[in-house]
Each structure stands twice: as C-alpha cells, then as structure tokens.
C-alpha cells in the first residue's frame, strides 16, 4: 500500500542530514481550566494519546527498497505506536521558561527516524507557574510552518466549555474556516493564512523542478540576484550566521503586545510587519556588536510575503494565493532606531513593488529560494553564486486573533521553531496570536552563541523604537 | 581517521532494525548526599555533562561510504555534542517508580542513530521520594551487559566523601580491579565479573564466524540441539514470548534482599542462582496461566554461565574465562514451587556437567547462541531448525557487594535493561548489588502485555519458596 511522495517532499527528505534536520516545531503554552487538579497534564496527555482515529498524514513513513525501484514512497506504518509519537515529559527544577526552552532546543536537535511516521508531540508539565506546554515536531515533508499553524488552529475552539476535541493528529470533523485568522492590519503577510496547504504545496513544487535544474529557471535566478538595478539584487555581507552548521539547536522565544508594535507603526506610517523587521534589525545589530562581528554593509533578510490576486495567477490550481520572497535591507549599519525602521520600511516597499513587476517565473524562483534554501543553495553554488543571497530568514505567520482553547485549556501563547540550514544558522519566525506577537528564534547552538541574548536585544529595540516614535 | 570495527560489533550493527534496537540499558537510583539542595540533580547533571575528557569508545560512530569500500568503520564524531548524549530529564507527576519505569521503557524503545556515537545517558529527577535516577543506553556494538556493569562499577567508590569522580564516559584514572565484584556464593555466574571485556569480545567473535556459516560449526550446533541424549537437547514449546516483536518496549524492575534467596538456597541445598531461576519459573508459570497460555511442556531458559579454568583454554587470549550457555528446564508444568526449585537445580547441574564434557567448538557454539541469538536465529532457520531453541533468556550479572557512591550520592540500586529479539520477546536480567538481587524485565510492549505483573508474580513466588523451604 505504498503511495508516491510528491517531489517537494522528496527534496526535503533528501536535503536532510545530521546537521540539518528538516522538521518544523511549535511550542504552545496552555493554562489549565479552573478546578483542574495536579493530574491535569496527565489527563491532557491521555486525551492526546488516546485518540482512536489518526489522520493518514501522521501514519505514513518514507520507504525505499529494491521493490520500489529505489524510489522513495510513503508507506503506512504497520507497527504504528502512538506512545512513540505522543510523549509525556516533565521539566527539571526550577521549572522556569528557561528549562522549557532548553528542552525544546534539545528535542528540536534530533532527527526524526524515517522508519516511523515523521512527527512527535511532547506534553510537558513541571512549569512552576502551573502552565502546561506542548512541543510538536513535524517533518517539512509533511507540513510547513504555515500549515502547521493552521493545523493547530483547526483543532482549537473559542469556546472554553467545548470538550471532546481531537488533537492535531486526530481525524477532524469538517469545519468552516474561521475568517479571523487574517492578519491584524491587512498586511500582505496575512494572505499566508488564506493559502490552502495544497496550494502552498503547488507553489513549493517549483523547488523540486529547481533541484532538477531547468536551465531557464537557474538563469532567471542568477539574473535576479546579480542585476544591480533591481531591488532583488542586494549585497549580503558574510556574517557569523552564514557558516556551516551542526545539528545542535538552541531555541529562544518571547512575545510582546501587538498594541505596542501597532502604536509605533501608526506614529511612523509603517506596518506592524515593518516594526517586527526593525526589532530584528536592531537586535541583530546589538548582538553582532556584542560579538565584535558587525559587518560594515547592512544585513539582508529574506522575508516571505503573500502575493495579491493579480500576481497569483501563476501559482495555484485551487484559487489560493502564492508565496513570494522579498529581500529586505535591515540597515544594521545605522545606529539610530528610527532611521533603521524607515530604511526597513522603504526596502520592504521597494521589494514588494519589484515583486509586482516580476515575471511569474521570477516570482517562483524567489519563492523557491525563500521556501527551500537548503535545496537551492547547493545548486546556486554549482552555478558560481557563492555569496549568501541573504543573511537571515525572518517570517511572520499570523495565527488566531482571539483567545482559543483546547478542551477547556486556554492557549496562552504559541511559538514557532524553524529550520536553520548550512549558511543560514539563524531563523526568526514570528506568529501573532490573541493580541501578542511571538518571536521564535531557532539557531545552531555552536554557530550562534548566546542566542537567548537576542531576546533582551529585541526588548531593548522595542523600547528604543517607542522612544523614537512616541517620544 | 577511520578505524576498523570488529566482526562481532559489525554483526550487532547489521542485525539491528526498527523492531530490534540492539542497545543495552541500565537504570541506577541514587540518594542525594546529606545537605544536598533542590538543585542537586542539576549539579549532578552538570558534573556528568561537563566532563572534559571523553573516552574514545564514546566518541566514535559507525560509518560506511564509497570511500570505505562499503565497509562499516568507526569514525570519530567531528561534531560531538555532549548535550545530545547526556540529558537532564524529569518525571511527570506523581513521580512514582511507575513513571520512572515508563520513561525508561520509552527511552529504551528508540534506536540510537548511527550518525552519532552510540550512547545516551539521562539524569532523571522528579521522583517523589527525592532520589535521582540515571538511565543509560549503550549500543551492544560497544558494550554488553557485563561490561556495562563493570564500566559503571569502575567509576564508583566505597567512600562517600570522595569527589571529582568522572562519569562512566569520562576518561578514568587507572585503578586496581576490586576483588569484591565476585558473586556472593562462588557460583559459576560469579566468573562473569572476572572476564575482561576483551576476552568477552574474543568469545563473542564466534558469532561473526557463525554468521559467515562455517559448515562445521553449524553442524555441531544442529547436533547439539537435536541430540536426544544430551541435556543440551531440550524441547522448548512455543509460547507467547516466542513471536515476532515490534520496537516498543516495556520495562519492569524490582529488587529483593539476597538474604531471603540465600536462606532458601541453604535450606534446600540449592544456589542463589537456582532460586533466581525458580522465582522466574514460578512467575512465568503464573503469568502464562493468567493469559490462559501455559503450554503443557515446560519452558526452557537459556542461562549464560562462566566456564572454569579447565574449560576456558579455548576462548581467551588474555587468560580470562569464557562464557558458556546452559539450557535450563524451568519445570513450569509443575504446580509445586519446591518441586520447581528442585527441577531447576538438577537441570542447571546437568547443563553444567554437559558443558564440561563438551568440545571447545560445541561450547563456543552454545556461547554464540546465548550471546547473539538475533544473529544466529536466522541462520538456524536456514538450516531447518525452526523451533525456538529456548523460550527466554535469564542472565545474572553480579555487581558490587557493598554500598557505593558517585561523588557522595549513594547508589541505592541498579537495574539492567536488555534486548528482546524476534522470537524472544522477553529478557530477564538480574544484577546483585549491596545485598539486593535486582530483576530487570525488558519486553516488547505489544507481544508481552502487562509485563509489570511479572513483578507481583516474582514476589509471590519468593514467598511461596520461603514457605516451602523454611516452613
């Protein structure tokens, strides 16, 4: 009962190695319902592991043998063991968020074995404030960050009294898609949420083509990266983030009220997404100064954005929107926070305009570069493009806007863990939820030392932007 | 800097698959030193993970490539990451021994990835009685149960005030071998402890030869198993333990005062090892009756024993003793505990006498069968020997006789986790330490349901033997 694996998933499976596990992760924090006892985390674990029907996505594993002609196929796991995939963990003393992030970093460092379905979920108790955490890990061949977020959202409810809700790997009753998952300020980023998983897949399909090296695509990509007059052509300096990585991961996460970001945006005529990027820019600058490693030239971030309806005719067979990527100058050479925000805003605007004037193939090439750099980078090297096309990936995935619950447990926050790759040792992914903007920083533990200090820098930068914008 | 892998280790690596992880485990329970604070487990973890010099055994991983001509070699891990190998865990509420055994079963179920050195150690806090646990997992290609026990013993001290002691994976200062590791009653089992690892390896070397199927050896083995007049030839019935297994593990463990076993032995003229086997016999009988699955014919256990000096001339190049295997009738068809003990005693005695009359090649064949059934069983099948040669493996590995400490933490107990294989879904390994006999039961979670009930049966059987022997 083997089924074919789509070419993109194959590419993600084959790109993986010990230094580059190809799974995305998510950390969720829940508050117990009122009246829940000490054993609540266990009850939650039992509800999650006791589910009868598992969605087929979570039952298959990659398989390759002589009988499949050496081709990778999906095979149902005939010894499927839910206790392997859903686990009950606890934090060591003193049970601070620090211990939780340490555990997530460790869990995120280990590859998923191909001999079993490519996912794990860990219910974690022992936070001293009594909250319960869940860390999930899913191979990029199954989902990407956006669809993982949607999967989670699809099992949550706004009703604290709803019960008998399945976990994300359970078989879901069909529900209408809630409208509210759109981004707060109607930024392009918001369109991510409207993209069905299958359309994302279609958009990503290009990466497999690219891995097969169709000459025209490669040429377009080279032209785009080298054309001095295009805003796609940026000079990205080498930084400590742009090295080979190991398989060790560190994870840092924190959230801030979106209201604070919105106030800055309003006062300066910028978007919330611009403020997110400016926070990252300032934090990266401070971090690199700490390490005496700030390059003269400004850092460049690759920022995935949604494409509007006019642009999207190229990508989707299901009416969804496609993804594009914008290269944003982070102005890390500027000492002044307000100037950095202004520069980021202009660079983002230029990039989007450039996108809108690009041909469909150019957009697809950028999209491929944004979504699957691990696959494309070796190809670029073979084509003589050795400089990193950008320094860091910063993405912003919108989540539910209002408070959500899982069987009465209130979701307090949700934090994404992403995929550092060779040459791109740090990934910053943000998710908005219930009035907060969460930053999830995933880095190679060896290449990016003291990753958690970036959180302090992010906080300082937000304060500095407030002082600059609001006086 | 690749180094060759000895043929036995290669055989263990190649025999491994998802259903049959080939690692041995150990669970140790420690009591904190007086005055230790809440953070003691963390201090212990930091001492264990902070070690500067790691023994080479723990730094190499198997590697195979075109450059090695497709041969497996050991390669030093150039990205060695101690935080991957030494981990700090905690138990969920309520932190009973049950939660600890669950965690060990789960950790024991997952294969060690070849891309890293083949070991893990987990320091586990959160036992409600305040003890700290350590679970270690080491591939059989690196150590066997006996050498793992010796490795642990080698870093412990009888002095509660000794400090700055390295963990088992640290580089050890050379010390004289303590004499006291011999078995309590001078039983043959005791000789295990005197066998240097390299001699064990030499004895095990035969398995690789066997895998290569030298005709003479196979013939000897077949003759031994079929010869009606030899005590080696036993009829082992099919039981629920003798099925294909999955990769899920359950672990159960408990210890009893050796004094109780010794009293029974004294009163009945049997050895402590006989009493261990009789406890297992009675427990297996009760367990199989519970499942309405007791066969008419008595079960047969494969029991590894040491060989005395006269027999050992064949095995060791370093003057150590070799291992042999005795097939012991467990008399599970007998309802009376005293009769079972008597029958086990006679069967063990016969088996040892038979061993002493065997030729060196016969002994080696038995030894290979005992040590590497996973490797030999397919070979036996190819030779038309389809019946399981025995139903269960019961081994008894002596440990230190007196109280030992690691940097002031008192070792309370040590429990072995072993390797179930296809056709042999349950493994019972016992270790003696500080006046207690610990039983470690490792089984396939699906094939051996309610494994933990065997502990209750063991306890009942010990009481029944006491009533029978002591009145």
SSE diagram, text form:
The structure is a homodimer of 471-residue chains.
Chain A: E1 3-4, H1 7-15, E2 23-31, H2 40-49, E3 60-63, E4 73-76, H3 82-85, E5 86-90, H4 97-109, E6 119-125, E7 132-139, H5 145-155, H6 197-211, H7 215-226, E8 249-257, H8 258-268, H9 272-290, E9 300-306, E10 323-329, H10 337-357, H11 360-371, H12 373-382, E11 392-398, E12 405-406, E13 409-417, E14 426-433, E15 436-444, H13 453-470
Parallel strand pairs in A: 5-6, 9-11, 11-14
Antiparallel strand pairs in A: 1-4, 2-7, 2-13, 3-4, 6-7, 8-15, 9-10, 12-13, 14-15
Helix pairs in contact in A: 1-6, 6-11, 7-11, 8-9, 8-13, 9-10, 9-13, 11-12
Care to describe what's here?
Chains A, B: It catalyses: an acyl-CoA + a 1,2-diacyl-sn-glycerol = a triacyl-sn-glycerol + CoA. Chains A, B: Belongs to the long-chain O-acyltransferase family. Chains A, B: Residues 320-465 form the O-acyltransferase WSD1 C-terminal domain. The structure is a homodimer of 471-residue chains. Chain A has helices at residues 7-15, 40-49, 82-85, 97-109, 145-155, 197-211, 215-226, 258-268, 272-290, 337-357, 360-371, 373-382, 453-470, and strands spanning 3-4, 23-31, 60-63, 73-76, 86-90, 119-125, 132-139, 249-257, 300-306, 323-329, 392-398, 405-406, 409-417, 426-433, 436-444. With 471 residues, chain A is of the alpha+beta class. Chain A folds into 2 domains: 3-154, Chloramphenicol Acetyltransferase; 197-401 and 414-470, 2-Layer Sandwich (Chloramphenicol Acetyltransferase). In chain A, the strands form 3 sheets. In chain A, strands 5-6-7-2-13-12 form a 6-stranded mixed beta sheet, sandwiched between helices. A 6-stranded mixed beta sheet of chain A has the order 8-15-14-11-9-10, with helices on both faces. In chain A, β5 (86-90), α4 (97-109) and β6 (119-125) form a beta-alpha-beta unit. In chain A, α1 (7-15) crosses α6, α9 (272-290) packs across α10 (337-357) and α11 (360-371) crosses α12 (373-382). The first copy, chain A, is globular and about 55 Å long. Mean pLDDT of chain A is 81; it is low at 175-217, 227-233 and 311-322. The A-B interface holds A 17-19, 38-39, 41-42, 45, 79, 81, 83-84, 87-94, 106, 109-111, 113, 115-116, 125-126, 246-248, 445-446 and B 17-19, 38-39, 41-42, 45, 79, 81, 83-84, 87-94, 106, 109-111, 113, 115-116, 125-126, 246-248, 445-446.
